[in-house]
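Give me the fold.
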Amino acid sequence: MNKFEKNEGCFPRTSQLPSQSPLFWVSQKDRYLRQLLIADIEAVTNRRLVVYFTSPHQSAMIDHDDVRCLYELLSDCSNEPVDLFIETPGGVTDAAEQLIQLIEQLAPGFRALIPHRAKSNGTLLALAASEILMGVTSELGPCDPMLAGVPVEFILNAADSLNPLDVQHAIHAQKQTKTTLSRLLKQHLSKNSNMSAEQKNLKLDELVTAFSTREVFASHGTPVGPAYLTENYIAVEHLSKENELWQKLWLLFCMYTHDCQMNGYSKIFETRKISISKAPDKSCE
């Protein structure tokens, strides 16, 4: 038994019965099966796996309540190397920055695993990682901020005809995103020893503009895949569909997607030992 396997029974894959009571195990079998797979993935990576999953069937976004949920999971990792499984359409920039600060303190050098999507401010979470693992279905996306569903760049381009307060809000929203992007992207570019300081600064300006405006990506939902990231010196490992780790990650993604839909969860935060689920518009349960 490797150090990442659970001590309690591994039913239904062995003849050993679970340590929980039958009625309780049956009622919670979905999460127990997911946690068994999490332990399997940890055996492949030799790293702790922390899952932050937002259901594609709900309109849930990154919010401030996510901080305490993720804190519970990361606190259990005891300074071990961490992989953060991310599935999110994005959300509140302030909350995303809070999450980044938390992860950087409790899991420095973490890797981001993106089986499907880390969009908008979810891309900020991914860029905070030392390395991003992606596969054939994985995508990040532009981080250009929006106000009331309108891209701030559109507001700034029409500033003369709009409320000055809205324009000021747009200016500061874009500044906040650019500042965070600059810090995160600089960490990736700093690892490239083949570029001069001037080249790194030019590339940094180019990438910040690409991710925070509509100058490169025409839509907020434009998929940004591993090829673009690798070409621009962002640390990415592209896993083939035959890769064992990728196959396990994709199975885990499918389990979360199904279980969220069947149980009405908006989010699940999970490790091999801890599981926190959220219903729409409710705090951690």
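The chain has ten helices and nine strands.
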